[in-house]
């Protein structure tokens, strides 16, 4: 019985103030009962169980291991995710149920993509295989082995589809197949060049000397060869992103330049203020998102000009970001296990969503919801952007902190997120507020 009263109080105490007439009285009765017990009992001072309401609406399960990649088809309301356990899961967003668990890969799933108007999906895994799956019945339709290197497996893999072809590319290799699986081309860049991207059926690659090649591998023609500006010695790729609607590839070099390369070979370079670990564009390709350490920067793309208009600061490393389809809202995920919701026009922090319990490595925005996932968690979470703020849980310290110390009265907790950090954070148990101490 003591356990029942303890868990009831722990789950509901955060709602005592917003709803004093019912929940407040119930929590008071629980506290009174616990105080009358003769045996020692730990009485909760805050909610350590997830309370009802709040932004978190659904937790989608069915994977084994952390979530490495996700893809979403808005029209069909299907979400596909691949895990480091080799499973591809498919959920329906209309009823939030698991539709298929696609089994066959023997290595971590590195990339997934919904294709054919959501009738099928493609997946590439660290076992080297490319597989096509039916999203109607969950059957495997195609398996191509040795699609990517396996020893070691690449850190990132990209799937690109043209009208007739499937391109699978890493930084050092491009392979092309017909849609039915017949291999057309296998090309490993023996000259040390890196693949920047694929536009249509053209592959954009670059040597470290700054020589860019734009070729059509199907007919073997090399359409463009040009040398980049501002590359007196060498150019080292940091991150790249395709802009298919504009017919361009953007990439940032570790030397601090942003390069724009068009299909016709026209290119330009400008100084870039950061070396990003995260680089993406929104659906309309008018906003470039770049993340470096604790800073997330947004750049307006207008013709050939790329101008920064927002700089969003975080408390820990930025790991993921997504701009809404109407360009009004941005969601970012960070290593501190928080999802931040920003105004993409003013830069105002609109909300902070806590409860992920692991670094947020993927975020997507869809119809007033945020979908989040982590490489350290086997579930996908759906958060509502429109919820009763009275149900917003008090912020808590992140899970898995390297060092934690609690004051004698348990009103304050001091912690260090990671072993390498020198900043001590303090968390007020009563208010949920944080402070930094060097």
From TrEMBL:
Gene3D superfamilies: YVTN repeat-like/Quinoprotein amine dehydrogenase (2.130.10.10). WD repeats lie at residues 60-101, 102-143, 311-352. The keyword Membrane does not apply. The keyword Lipid metabolism does not apply. Keywords: WD repeat. SUPFAM superfamilies: WD40 repeat-like (SSF50978). It holds the Pfam family WD40. It comes from the Eukaryota. PANTHER family: NACHT DOMAIN- AND WD REPEAT-CONTAINING PROTEIN 1 (PTHR45013). This is NACHT and WD repeat domain-containing protein 1-like. It comes from Notothenia coriiceps. The gene is LOC104947277.
């Amino acid at each position: 019985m003591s356990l029942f009263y303890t868990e009831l109080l722990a789950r509901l105490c955060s709602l005592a103030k917003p709803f004093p007439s019912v929940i407040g009285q119930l929590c008071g009765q629980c506290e009174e009962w616990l105080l009358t017990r003769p045996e020692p009992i730990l009485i909760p001072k805050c909610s350590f169980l997830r309370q009802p309401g709040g932004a978190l609406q659904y937790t989608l399960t069915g994977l084994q291991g952390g979530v490495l990649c996700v893809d979403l088809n808005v029209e069909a309301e299907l979400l596909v995710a691949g895990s480091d356990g080799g499973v591809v899961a498919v959920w329906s967003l209309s009823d939030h149920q698991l539709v298929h668990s696609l089994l066959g890969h023997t290595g971590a799933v590195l990339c997934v993509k919904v294709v054919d108007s959501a009738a099928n999906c493609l997946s590439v895994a660290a076992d080297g295989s490319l597989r096509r799956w039916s999203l109607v019945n969950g059957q495997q339709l195609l398996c191509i082995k040795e699609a990517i290197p396996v020893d070691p497996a690449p850190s990132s893999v990209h799937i690109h589809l043209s009208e007739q072809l499937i391109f699978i590319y890493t930084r050092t290799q491009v392979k092309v197949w017909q849609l039915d699986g017949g291999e057309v081309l296998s090309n490993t860049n023996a000259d040390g060049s890196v693949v920047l991207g694929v536009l249509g059926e053209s592959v954009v690659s670059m040597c470290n000397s700054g020589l860019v090649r734009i070729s059509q591998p199907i007919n073997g023609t090399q359409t463009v060869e040009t040398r980049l500006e501002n590359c007196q010695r060498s150019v080292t790729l940091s991150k790249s992103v395709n802009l298919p609607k504009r017919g361009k590839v953007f990439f940032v070099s570790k030397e601090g330049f942003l390069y724009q390369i068009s299909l016709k070979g026209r290119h330009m370079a400008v100084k870039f203020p950061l070396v990003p670990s995260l680089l993406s564009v929104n659906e309309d390709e008018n906003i470039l998102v770049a993340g470096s350490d604790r800073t997330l920067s947004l750049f307006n793309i207008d013709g050939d000009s790329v101008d920064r208009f927002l700089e969003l600061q975080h408390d820990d490393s930025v790991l993921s970001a997504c701009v809404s389809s109407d360009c009004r809202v941005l969601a970012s995920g960070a290593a501190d296990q928080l999802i931040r919701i920003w105004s993409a026009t003013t830069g105002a922090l609109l909300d902070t969503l806590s409860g992920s319990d692991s670094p947020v490595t993927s975020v997507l925005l869809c119809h007033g919801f945020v979908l989040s996932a982590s490489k350290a968690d086997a579930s996908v979470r759906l958060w509502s952007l429109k919820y009763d703020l009275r149900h917003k849980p008090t912020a808590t310290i992140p899970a898995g902190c390297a060092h934690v110390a609690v004051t004698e009265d348990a009103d304050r907790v001091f912690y260090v997120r990671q072993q390498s950090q020198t900043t001590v954070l303090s968390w007020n148990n009563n208010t949920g507020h944080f402070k930094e101490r060097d």
